[in-house]
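Notebook entry, structure prediction.
Reason for the run: the old model in the group folder had no record of what sequence produced it. Starting over properly, with the input documented here first.
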Amino acid sequence: MQPHFSRRDAIASGAALTLGITWIGHRAGAAPPDAGTGLWPSFPHQNPDLVREVVGVCHRDLARATELVRAEPSLANAAWDWGFGDWETALGAAAHTGRREIAEMLLEHGARLDIFAAASLGYTAVVKAMVEARPGIQRTWGPHGIPLAAHARAGGDAAKDTLDYLLSLGDADAPPASQTLTDDQRAMYAGSYAFGPGPTERLDVKVNKQWLEITRGGDSARRIHCVGEHAFFPAGVPSTRLVFVVKGERAESLVVTIGGRVVECMRV
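New structure, fully documented this time:
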């Protein structure tokens, strides 16, 4: 049976074309738009592919970020989970990369200012007020586990006073605790771990220089930090635990504890 396409649908489609809205390509594994309506599967929630793109380009591309946000201003507050709960907003992406022009564009379109963006932009009075209102907030990590002081450092000369203030606190620049691994230890964990029968239902652990990364399919790789006893947590999400079950000289399985759920992944 062909899906019903009403006059209202036609009007909505025409309005979308008038506004110059286009559907970007779907990432690997994402469901395609409905053939009848052209809508993404999670409608009326924001198109996830569009959300992912805007957060991604806000790390580096002012022109594309501006194009997307002008077409859909609500994207100024877009947030994307890069994996395991490592949430990042469009403004957060601009803040930790020091992209001041992108951050200001987002704020002009209604983005919600937070302490990380304030630090990057050099809003020292704002940062001080938040620390005084909530002592210890300076120890909160931003997306990917990036410290607050690192955001001010990314802001360059415009944020020098903010960086000086944060460094004076003594605890605003501490990175996530992570044990150093040897080459043999990294090799012990590297491999693919399946949590289901499908070809994409697996997590790949790979060596990247001096650390380990974990990814699923074409998703963004996440660095994992070792906390001892074969236990790790992914960047930006210390509440998630990845524990390798080691037998002999290599890991045979990976136990993921996320959101109160335990998932055992077998090495393949």
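Summary: Strands lie at 79-81, 87-89, 191-194, 202-208, 211-215, 222-228, 231-234, 241-247, 250-258, 261-267.
The old model has been moved to the deprecated folder.
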